[in-house]
Amino acid sequence: GNSVTQMEGPVTLSEEAFLTINCTYTATGYPSLFWYVQYPGEGLQLLLKATKADDKGSNKGFEATYRKETTSFHLEKGSVQVSDSAVYFCALTGTQGGSEKLVFGKGTKLTVNP
Amino acid sequence: DTAVSQTPKYLVTQMGNDKSIKCEQNLGHDTMYWYKQDSKKFLKIMFSYNNKELIINETVPNRFSPKSPDKAHLNLHINSLELGDSAVYFCASSQDGQPQHFGDGTRLSIL
């Protein structure tokens, strides 16, 4: 079945450091890929997405490129801020019965210190 | 305007009780979902409904029963609550394969 593997956290960085959170996937067909973010005490928010190979999703300074050859979708940001502290989830869609079922990685907790 | 709203936000109850969580979306989406997030933050789909019809039913105990009275609502009823049911339950909705929108979650604690 479909699965997502993302780097184990927690990750602790200083403000303005470079961030990479690795994500690789296993899927049949051509899934869409997503990064969701969960701020403390809140629900999940879509951060960015990519729907086909070589697509780059970007939002709020975060980027991720859909790499079919390496089955990866790594999240990057050039300069993190304290407000980026959250749990980040990599996910893909696998279609079941016409409804898009999200399969999540285990989440990576990011803490950014001033 | 809240897009996907869940009630209650917190639910504390005793083992063996029956409880319900409600979800409503005002986005006009056709598909709604329930996900469970455990204490380690792992998220897994439980159910999905499309236009009031059950589409996805993962390996969930039959103590959990979703009900969709119309396409804007998907409620989750849980019978005979157990300690292992303690989690955060998220409702989500989507349309035509577009990204899912999530509610803020319901934190269920079983005493």
Quick description:
The complex is a heterodimer of chains A (114) and B (111). Chain A is an all-beta fold.
If you had to describe this structure to a student in words, what would you say it looks like?
- The complex is a heterodimer of chains A (114) and B (111).
- Chain A has 114 residues and is mostly beta strands.
- Chain A is 0% helix and 54% strand.
- Chain A has no helices and 12 strands.
- Chain A has strands at 3-6, 11-14, 19-21, 23-26, 33-38, 44-50, 56-59, 62-65, 75-77, 86-96, 99-104, 108-113.
- In chain A, strand 10 and strand 11 (99-104) form a beta hairpin.
- Chain A is globular.
- Chain B has 111 residues and is an all-beta fold.
- Chain B is built from no helices and 11 strands.
- Chain B has strands at residues 4-7, 10-13, 19-25, 31-37, 43-50, 53-57, 64-70, 73-78, 87-94, 101-102, 106-110.
- Chain B is globular.
- At the A-B interface, strand 5, strand 6, strand 10 and strand 11 of A face strand 4, strand 5, strand 9 and strand 10 of B.
Overall spatial form of chain A: globular
Give the rounded overall mean pLDDT of chain A.
92
Structure class of chain B: mainly beta
Give the end-to-end Cα distance of chain B, rounded to a whole number of Å: 34 Å
Alpha-beta content class of chain A: mainly beta
